[in-house]
Amino acid sequence: MEEKYYVLIAEDSAINQRILQKILEKDYHLELASNGAEAVRKLGASPDKYAALILDLKMPEMDGFEVMGYIKDHLKIKNLPILVETEEHNSKTEARCFALGAWDFVRKPYEPATLKARLANIIARGQANLMKRIKSLAERDTLTGLYNRSFFMDQTVTMVTDHPEMDFAMVRLDIDRFRMYNSFFGKDAGDELLKLMANVLGRVCELIPMCTFGRIESDIFCICEPYEDTIISNQLEFIKGQLPKMSEHYRLGISCGISVIRDHDHPDMENIYAQTTEAAKTCKGKYNRYYAYYNESMHEKNVKAQKISNEMERALANEEFKVFIQPKYALSNDKPCGGEALVRWFHGEEGIISPGEFIPVFEQNGFIIQLDYYMWDKVCALLRKWLDAGCNPDPVSVNISRVSFYDPHILDHLFGLIDKYKIPASLLYLEVTESAYMSNPHLMAEIIAQLHKKGFIIMMDDFGSGYSSLNTLKDIDVDILKIDMKFLPTGHDNVKSEKILASITRMAGWLGMPVVVEGVETKEQRDFLESIGSGYVQGYFFARPMPAEDYEAHGGQLSEMIPMDTVEEGITREELDSLWASDGRVSTLLKSITIPFAIFEYSDFQCDILRMNDAFIRTFNPEDENGIWNKEGMEIKADKLIDALKKTVTKKSTTECELCFQNDKSVRWFMGRLKYIATVAKTDLISGTFSEITMERRLEGELNKIYRAISDVDSAHGGKKPAMLVVDDSDIGRGILKNMSATATSLTAGQWPGGAGCAFGKIGKDPDHPAGSEHAGDGRLGIFETEEPHGHRGGYSRHRGLLGKQRGSPAEHAQKRRQLIISPSPTCPRWSSSGSRTCWNTMAGSGLWSGNTTTFQTVHDHRR
Description:
Low-confidence stretches: 561-570, 631-637, 746-864
Strand content: 15-25%
Distance between the termini: 119 Å
């Protein structure tokens, strides 16, 4: 019995409905609609139900033209066969109907045979088209129109088996970072990109006499063609060259894998496709390499991986996986302070299988979760055994793979083990690789918080292995950092790595985190790590991984890993942390210090500035390449600073030093006062204030000139120490000059008798002879210094002078014997031997009357 199709009749005339029913009811299931709107509702409710539509053009609510327009615009019913009823032949009406999707026409009044024939014909054509569409859906990708995965594989097998004399190659290509492209530009833009790629592949394959090509999934496409290395290389180069045309605002790339098909009789296309996928993986992240051939080494790797997968369940059931422990050592005493549990596979036939071979396979197939649980259980059992034996064991760390960390039952399992074996959680350290933190940091933070509440210690493993992020340390509350030496090797050619390692250690010290460095294999590495403040190490230099039974020989007292920082002088961790605080209190305190102030970090004869105040920045500008701290050509004589820092650390007290900044144009001197703060991870913290003493040093230079003049007097006195009179109304100035000159002269320091603004001195043999005595003027030298207020200029002038009388005959002495006066301004009185007052105004605003003047200098320092 043939299947009866459903036919919908859209006719508003009840008479015509009954006529059509009478003619067609024996051959079809008929449903009626009295107007166009009702017909549309029925089609929308059951789009796949009807094999054809008999449609009247003239109906209420929606006429036949509107119904056909609706059908044409809706994908699910656009291919529905439509038989249009007309009352007369009209070519324009028929043309319009054909344009809207009509398949054929039938005239009223109905001719039963013609009606049946035409209806049967459009239904047959419609069913044929439906089968083609079904076949196309089975063979073609709906987005690009290329072969889909199943049909591509089938057609490729046929092509290869039909041509056993030829070698073929399957080429797989995918678009790099396609998911990111979708995220940036949206799914519609991503679909358009896939269509463009399909068109490019079509252009390539049009030139290949025999090939298959299709879209496998997502952004992955495949071509199978006769194997010619040069031709394939040129094709891929052409495809790569088309990428910039596909997207102007996103740099596109492709990764391609190629596998040559050798088996012509029974080619396993899915396996060959897997080979191309493996080859393509080797191109990921390689800027200059975008295609690769599957080779024998990849084949051997896949064979091993499959063999490992086949045997892993049996090995776990037979307990072929054994716990080995590698001790960790404290550099403070080179004694064990715990260990790391490592897995070893003792295969019944092949012996020991390296973790490097089976761990990646287990991570890929998910078996790593079961292995992790197995290892945790074994380690907890060992800890319980040692506790029962009366030992106080060191903590043992276990590894948690990234896959295991995202197991929703991980907390239940770890907490269950602690409860099962009744051991302190602090004995079971948990090592998590840094890459695991990066996958889902929010979830990771929540899990770690729960583990901390239970008492577990969390170690970040492989820090610096390529996924490093300071945000990880800021956001994830880990307790210990673990660094592998293979990622940061040391030695003569690895200075940068050593600096990075030292910086990480110091940073961890500031954060209060111990650092464990694994992979230590030489004494040089051990000594270097100790010198930069690393507290703990692990590696072959100390001990190799060993069976649990051998590790028991290392048993000792519990040695918790504490941060390697010593806080002295009563400073607490909280006080040290405040040095980094950015709150208003610390900033206000720094700004309130009016002279340059900085906190230095000193280690191994090197220092860095941690914090500085505004005065330090204004004076030295250390962060500006044009500042005097870094200015090109400016020599910093900082040897005394380094020596003073070392002395400060040694004494753990205060020290003074001088800094000189000089180049061809200028010289500036500063007195630094340093104070020890604390030691963190073998790095010393020192505060320093800096006062400029350039003027004092310039005065010292002037004194050097005086010393040369004194040497003449010294020789004239037969080697006696000459006398010098220092006259200055400033106690500080007199003290400085006395300290600077005391070693070379007999010095008398006094205040101006005339007060500020008036200088009085004499040339005499020694300070005890009064003015006007017979010895006055016998080789006596005087230094004069005064400050003159300027009421009309709002400042003052500083005047310095060296007065001297050259030696001569007694008659010359008597003739030239007199008092010497400096008068800084015309308003200042001159003191004479007769007591009269006279004003002098000579020599750049300073009055001077004397015998022979050896040296005289006036310095004006106007201050506003």
